[in-house]
Amino acid sequence: MRRTIRKEVATTMKKSSPRKRSSRNRPPSLVDKFLHYDHSYASGFEKGYHQGRADGTSGYLKSLEGTSVIIPVCNRKESLMAYVDSKRADANHACELIVIDNGSSDGTADYLRKSGGKLRYWINSNDIGVVGAINQGLMMARGQTLSILWNEAALTSGRLNDSQEQAGEGRTDVADIGEDAGTYGLCMPRETFRRLGYLDELFEQPEIAVMDYAVRAFLLNMIPKLPDIASVSIPHSETDRLYFRSKWGRRIENVFESGWTPDGRIGDIGAFYPTSVTVKSMGPAVYRLENNRRYKLESEGAGISATRLSQLDMKRWPLTTEVSPEHCMDDDDGSLVQTPDGQIYQISQGKLRPVLSSWVLAMWHLDRQPVMPISLEQKALYEEGIPLIAPPVIRTGFL
């Protein structure tokens, strides 16, 4: 009896309940409209972001026909403003202005933020050094000619205008190391930067860093004379002088007196780097350099001593398949040997390549590798190759 009553009540409620309207015919509620708008906005924002990023990246990499003027500054707001205004008024020397602020406290950062597209800039929260700031500017530069002004006198004179035109014709002012470099800055074609790489950030004074740069230019036969640090007309720090000597050896001339001469056919400074060394750039990936090839190691940076290179230097070697470190060793290739006169060489593709200094060994972590003595008779069995040099020290994180 109870079951019959329950069944009848359930049937009656089912018949009397209102029929549900199909969601297809129901008009959208305010919540539905908001959710639709929110989804469309998010979708459009995501699409616009990626498109803008792609366009910005492609535009950033496009080079300019004119000159990029790189100006590292620290508390020189007034002279900087005057220079920017003068360049904007000079229609004969159109250029891209790049200002790197090194932790100024005189309002330079605010001036740069309000520049309204007059120039490109990077603001460092603290002073990373003039050479580090120059490297940041070189990374940002897009011009076919690169002018670097680090001295107050360079901002108050038009001295580099002639140099800009010369560099644009294919000549390099790296050859003019000396008084001009110490007073006004440096100017060079972009191709020179591509071949030589960044400045060494371990130098405190840009004048000595440029001297170091000129030695690299000499190795590539870009200038006719090996520069001497004594030729720099400004007082230089003892720290920089000692570092220069330790990097290039007490008498770099000995290498050239041995019979090796600069070869203009060498493409870039990477040819002077050793083989059988481990390197890394700004990311966690670690690579092995072996005979003009770059191999990605299976394990990343943890526990591996790797030499820090700039991205520009890293890309000098084509990347091949991923391998483990033990697969990179090949007989005597990469081994170190030493002749009775104390000169250390690395064996590379059947040639003996002289190591310029102990700093070179330390920078490439080759100082931990055993050195085998050989006689002069054994040395004579090898052809002498190009010298091994140290890479520039890079401290700036995104180079």
What descriptors fit this protein?
14 strands, five-stranded mixed sheet, 15 helices, 37% helix, alpha/beta, 399 residues, Spore Coat Polysaccharide Biosynthesis Protein SpsA, Chain A
Explain what the structure shows.
This protein is of the alpha/beta class and 399 residues long. The chain folds into two domains: 62-248, Spore Coat Polysaccharide Biosynthesis Protein SpsA, Chain A, CATH 3.90.550; 269-384, no CATH class. 37% of the residues lie in helices and 16% in strands. The chain contains 15 helices and 14 strands. Strand 2 (95-102), helix 4 (108-113) and strand 3 form a beta-alpha-beta unit. It is globular. It starts with a helix and ends in a 15-residue tail after the last strand. Residues 162-173 and 177-182 have low confidence and may be disordered.
Describe how the helices and strands are arranged.
Elements (H helix, E strand, L loop, with lengths): L1 H15 L13 H32 L2 E10 L3 H13 L5 E8 L5 H6 L6 E5 L5 H11 L2 E6 L3 H4 L4 H9 L10 H5 L2 E4 H7 L9 H14 L18 H11 L4 H5 L19 E4 L5 E5 L2 E4 L10 E2 L2 H4 L21 E3 L5 E5 L2 E4 L3 H6 L7 E3 L2 H4 L3 E2 L15
Parallel strand pairs: 1-2, 1-4, 2-3, 6-9, 10-13, 12-14
Antiparallel strand pairs: 4-5, 6-7, 7-8, 10-11, 11-12
Keywords: Transferase
GO molecular function, one term: transferase activity
Protein name: Glycosyltransferase
